[in-house]
Amino acid sequence: MRRRLLGAGLLALTALVSTASAATIRFRPQGAELLRQVQAAVAALSTKDLPVTLDTSSGPILTLGGAAPFNPDVAARVVVVGTDRRIEFNPQGPLPLAEAVRSELARELGLSAWTPAAARTRLSGADLNGDGKIDLSDLALLMNNYGKAGVTVGDLNQDRKVDDADLNLFSSQYKP
């Protein structure tokens, strides 16, 4: 079970980079309309305490439409083409594009809701297992790597080691 949780967390981390004070979400929206919708969605998550920015140089490709026809009841789908992960949005889908973008990006990033509070929990770095909450399971992952160098799980300040500084960052974000 622990391996499955770590795998889910690592998948979501391919789409974001974060520290305790800022987060960058990595997606490659294709086309002006989709870029505008993604930028608006990201702006809605950003706060003074945790600025969230969009990096369009890497991450999953976001497209409006796709090569294959959509089921009319589907707002978006994930397709893997070679080594690229693509999220295709249905232009005639059941949801307005802005809502479909927020919903699919929330699922991709592991957010429990498209709110600044949910983003703070997930993107702050302390949600190590990617379950949308900062709890003792995350602390266990941090402590499993405590004292180790070169690891990424638990290295909240990204100094390539898990130490007291990371434990302090975790403590500032953990709310029992």
Automatic annotation (TrEMBL):
- Residue ranges spanning the membrane: these are none
Q: Which CDD domains match?
A: Dockerin_II
Indicate the secretion signal residues.
1-22
Q: Which InterPro entries match?
A: Dockerin_dom_sf, EF_Hand_1_Ca_BS, EF_hand_dom
- Please name the Gene3D superfamilies in this protein's record: Dockerin domain
All copies of the EF-hand domain together span 127-149
Name the UniProt key words of this record, in alphabetical order.
Signal
Name under which the protein is recorded: EF-hand domain-containing protein
Q: Which organism is it from?
A: Deinococcus navajonensis
State the taxonomy lineage.
Bacteria, Thermotogati, Deinococcota, Deinococci, Deinococcales
